[in-house]
Amino acid sequence: MSDSLAGRAASEASVSRPTRSISGVTPGRVEHPTSTAEVAEIMRAAAAAGESVVPTGAGTKLDWGSPPASADILLDLSALDQVSEHASGDLIATAGAGTPLAQLKEHVAAADQRLALDEVVPGTTVGGALATNTSGPLRMLAGTMRDLLIGVTMVRADGVVAKAGGKVVKNVAGYDVGKLLVGSYGTLAVVTEATFRLHPVPQSRRWVSVAARDSAHAAGLTQAVLHSQTVPSALEVDASAGGVRVDVLVEGRPEGVVGRAAVLSALLPGAETSAEPPAGWGRYPWNDTADSHLGIKVTFRLSGLADVLEAAGELGLRGSAGVGVAYVAVPAEREITEIRAILARLRETTGRHGGSAVVLDAPPALEQQLDLWGPVPALGLMRRVKHEFDPDHRLSPGRFVGGI
Amino acid sequence: MTPLQRLTATARALLPEDGVITDLARLRTYECDGLAHYRVTPALVVIPETAEQLAEIVRCCAEEQIPYVARGSGTGLSGGSLPHAEGVLVVTSRLRAIKEVRREDQRAVVEPGVINLDVTRAATPEGYYYAPDPSSQQICSIGGNVAENSGGAHCLKYGFTTNHVLGAEFVTAAGDRVRLGGDAPDSPGYDLLGAVVGSEGTLGIVTEVTVRLVRLPEKVVTLLVGFDSTDRAGAAVSAIIAAGIVPAAIEMMDALAIEAAEAAVSCNYPDGAGAVLVIELDGPAAEVDAEYADVVRFCEETGAFEIRTAKTPEERFLIWKGRKSAFAAVGRISPDYIVQDGVIPRTALPEVLRAITELSERSGVRVANVFHAGDGNLHPLVLFDDAVPGAGDAAEEVSRGILDLCLQHGGSITGEHGVGADKAGHMPKMHAADDLDTMQLVRCAFDPDRISNPGKIFPTPRLCGERPGRRQGAHPLQQAGIAEVF
Prior knowledge:
The complex is a heterodimer of chains A (about 400) and B (about 475).
Chain A: H1 3-9, E1 15-16, E2 29-31, H2 36-49, E3 53-56, E4 73-76, E5 83-87, E6 92-96, H3 101-109, E7 113-114, H4 126-132, H5 139-142, H6 145-148, E8 149-156, E9 161-165, H7 177-181, E10 189-197, E11 199-200, E12 204-212, H8 215-226, E13 234-238, E14 244-252, H9 254-267, E15 272-274, E16 293-299, H10 305-312, E17 318-320, E18 325-331, H11 336-352, E19 357-361, H12 364-367, H13 379-389
Parallel strand pairs in A: 2-4, 3-4
Antiparallel strand pairs in A: 1-2, 5-6, 6-10, 7-11, 8-9, 8-10, 12-14, 12-15, 13-14, 13-17, 16-18, 16-19, 17-18
Chain B: H1 3-14, E1 20-21, H2 24-27, E2 44-46, H3 51-64, E3 68-71, E4 88-91, E5 98-102, E6 107-110, H4 116-123, E7 128-129, H5 142-148, H6 155-158, E8 165-172, E9 177-181, H7 192-196, E10 204-212, E11 214-215, E12 219-227, H8 230-242, E13 249-254, H9 255-265, E14 275-283, H10 285-301, E15 306-309, H11 313-324, H12 326-329, E16 336-339, E17 342-343, H13 349-363, E18 367-372, E19 377-384, H14 391-408, H15 427-430, H16 433-446, E20 471-472, H17 476-479
Parallel strand pairs in B: 2-4, 3-4
Antiparallel strand pairs in B: 1-2, 5-6, 6-10, 7-11, 8-9, 8-10, 12-14, 12-15, 13-14, 13-18, 16-19, 16-20, 17-19, 18-19
């Protein structure tokens, strides 16, 4: 680190006053680094000064998680916004943490490739999607961030720059530290750059959609699709707007897709086939920009779908029936006792089906009154991981499970 | 009593008589895994029958500060389950129950000693299978697969062990039993399971594993394609990938590897081929048919002189038999050999293969190439005769040189065999000191006393400069009559 860079990190141009809060907590100041080296400099200075740091990208999920116990610095990574490498023959791409996910996707699309990760929160950055582990319908085909991430550059809480993984998909040389960072809400290290495996863009796609009579019927239909050999890219259920709909996406060769859609139509009597996604595809069943709701993520065994649909009741849900993940929106104006009862009901049901119910997003006042995470197994080990990476609890303190 | 005597007494109280081995002659049968060059006789071997017993043993190890090493079937190729001379080897082979196969959830719950292929066998009547398929799948255990994050020929399309393990019961280095992940995806909190898979037994031991089952494909087509050179075979691979086709597998073998496989299992590969590709397409029939037509065209355009498509399961079996037996087969054409495992970006394949050829010609050391061409995972087999003075050193130099080539091209020192005892000394070439330090933070969190498989993955003065692995003749398990050549 040169002195000039250190000077830049602390200069007027790279520091600003906060214009928004983190779950209701107003940060002391905002730092705007433009490189990994500058992030490292800021982290070293923060460590020396005993300051807390909350990393952010576009800020689309800054209200997710618990309110931070402290936020001296909001570390705005949005200037780290370059796609630094796209090796199309090797199906990999590397981008700065602040790169909008849409920009990375657009970049690789030029080579008929895709990062098979849905942009479920519009405007989200690479780093934001990584830190919160967001995913959408395509996860049935390609998995989630943990499955697509093959390398990261991070700045640790002590300012040390480290890399994990690499630029080849197949690599078992040491621990997969990147997986620990995925979904860690910025509590272990500041990710500044990430490398992903890409997939070819399929030539053709079709959605096959059908209205189910009720929860049990929807569950029966999803089981029929799961046990078919049509290899869907996505199998979604949408009960967020009255009724229950099952939507299946098949992708591939035009001749293959037509045949597979026909098989699915036979499995789903009354189904309609479309070249366009159904309404709400790949979006949460709530308005990301409004403070009007709680957004709850529920996970469950595939066979638990009917019960989870019943537990959501009139609230409805939308999500990936084919992998056992769905989202429930609860109007924020409900009484706190009722919200607690809903959460308890969802936790009881998903718990019975091997899953969980986590409040992703809620108005800050509500976040403080709720147990956002529910039961977390192996929390003791998680605390030890946090302690090793960030013994002073400098990074996003209190935003994660168990007050981590 | 010494700490080891106390541990032995604890084990005797917990386990049946044949579950505690102290006799030197029998201890020595556990002195190595699939990387037989490294041999260490453990101080004690225990074979628990339940997770509780295993946890109790580890608890006692923690109390007494005795190192322990977990071992499944002992097929690892990097010395990951090489015993510790003052430690206990915890063998999981009796934790062998397939507890659940749930079609409705597409899950199986198995104990760590369960053989990889047995998971598929249990799921096949339901129309499902377990996707990760290391070449040793007839004998390797799921616990070992979790430790090594095992891949296999089909991981190009279906991913590695880490993509198929959803949950585990895990015994920490303190002997606590904790749940990691679960039946449902995205368990709240850190992805500890993601760190444990591939950690080579250095963070703890899994005693139960929940895996994803995959629906059997409607159609599978296996092709064996002969080319006169690896360059042309490589061009075919590039054409296939560039067209957006993701085959279930694309494997390449060069002339020397073909010669060895032919000598060992008479797989009847095309005569005079400088390289063969084994290409497998699977999925919905209409998709496979469309891709098949393209793959055949690409192979013809890049100069294939023979394209053979398996018409029966037996023909498919024979095509795969040649490929999967390749490592052991090399024992037929060379008294000694080193199995290397490195990764390069796939596009660097022609350049790296040429460099390996040059290395081989310059040194006079023969190298047979077998690899997962779709993802750039090379398995060069470096041949030598240890009876010839200096031959072993020359082979090791070539083997190291191949790893250096991988690193020069931005690759990895191991794609699936692991670091283990074998490549710990190479880790600083691939990872900066701060990167290794960061990995060790994870180790410190899980196992601060470093009693779980110490000396593996991370370089220590004791391991630096050690000779890379060698193996004589056939695989040790094959020699022992435990496994057939396949």
